[in-house]
């Protein structure tokens, strides 16, 4: 049903944004890596970017790491996810 997305997060950035290098996705968030703030910023940013409710995205791996695996809990294909992220 859902699809997974592997990202590397850069917290405490000056701006929100994404960079792509091959299949690697780096996401910059303004929030610091304190008390889950960077994770919340990441989930908010990705939800807005791909047009899904934030509640439908969860971190399945890497909760306390820069490298994370997200699960999108909506009926969306991997190809559609790539299109929405502009990969």
Structure write-up:
This protein is of the alpha+beta class. The protein has a single domain, classed as Conserved Hypothetical Protein Mth637, Chain: A (2-Layer Sandwich), CATH 3.30.1200. It is built from two helices and five strands. A hairpin with a 5-residue loop joins strand 4 and strand 5.
Poorly predicted runs: none
Q: What helical percentage do the residues reach?
A: 25-40%
Count every beta strand, where a strand is a DSSP E run of 2 or more residues. 5
What is the CATH C level class, in words? Alpha Beta
Helix/strand/pairing class, anyone? alpha+beta
Terminus-to-terminus distance: 21 Å
**Strand/helix succession:** EEEHEEH
Averaged pLDDT, please?
93
Compute the gyration radius: what is it?
A: 12 Å
- CATH homologous superfamily (4th level) name: YggU-like
Q: Output the number of helix runs.
A: 2
What is the third-level CATH name, the topology?
Answer: Conserved Hypothetical Protein Mth637, Chain: A
Strand order of the largest sheet: 2-3-1-5-4
Q: So what's the overall shape?
A: globular
Strand content: 25-35%
Any idea how many domains?
Answer: 1
Largest sheet: 5 strands, mixed
What CATH architecture label applies?
2-Layer Sandwich
In summary, what is this structure?
The protein has 87 residues and is an alpha+beta fold. The chain is 25% helix and 33% strand.
Key attributes of the depicted protein:
alpha+beta; 5 strands; Conserved Hypothetical Protein Mth637, Chain: A; 87 residues
């Amino acid at each position: 049903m859902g699809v997974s997305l592997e990202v590397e997060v850069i917290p405490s950035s000056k701006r929100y944004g994404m960079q792509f290098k091959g299949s690697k996705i780096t996401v910059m968030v303004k929030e610091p890596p304190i008390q889950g703030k960077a994770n919340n910023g990441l989930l908010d940013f990705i939800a807005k970017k791909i047009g899904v409710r934030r509640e439908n995205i969860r971190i399945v791996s890497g909760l306390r790491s820069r490298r994370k695996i997200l699960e999108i809990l909506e009926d969306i294909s991997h190809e559609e996810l790539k299109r929405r992220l502009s990969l």
